[in-house]
Write a structure and sequence with these properties.
Layout: H1 2-10, H2 12-26, H3 33-43, H4 55-72, H5 74-82, H6 84-100, H7 103-107
Helix pairs in contact: 3-4, 3-5, 4-6
């Protein structure tokens, strides 16, 4: 009963939302590849709640956009490649984006245009006289 009264008194959900928004707003300004991977590891840790106000989606977006930089940084690459949870999350995001594309559009090549046969009239030459 005391916990319910405290959570209502302090409105923990609004505090969580503000904290998540603050982190998401600042992610683009984090230029260190290892920092992005460290944050992803914390967000995808078992102790982090599943309802994260968009933090998971935001960090995966940052990893996708910075993957070339992460691959160049040996320490960041080792940390990224060693974290199966983050790898799985990136893979799931990639698979979901492929599923968003219509299966007809993704797997069916465009129709080959039909060659339109033009009918030509026989030309008659005049002698110009």
């Amino acid at each position: 009963m005391l916990f319910v009264a405290n959570s209502v008194k302090y409105n923990l959900e609004s505090i969580k939302l503000k904290a998540a928004e603050a982190i998401i707003d600042r992610l683009p300004f984090l230029h260190d590849a290892m920092g992005v991977i460290d944050i992803a590891a914390v967000i995808y840790d078992e102790s982090c709640p599943q309802i994260d106000c968009g933090l998971r989606k935001a960090i995966i977006s940052q990893i996708q956009s910075r993957l070339p930089t992460i691959m160049e940084d040996e320490a960041a690459w080792e940390a990224y490649a060693g974290n199966k949870t983050v790898l799985k999350a990136l893979h799931e995001c990639h698979c979901a984006s492929l599923e968003d594309v219509s299966s007809d559009e993704a797997l069916t090549p465009p129709a080959t245009p039909n060659k339109v046969e033009k009918k030509y009239r026989a030309q008659t030459r005049s002698s110009g006289a």
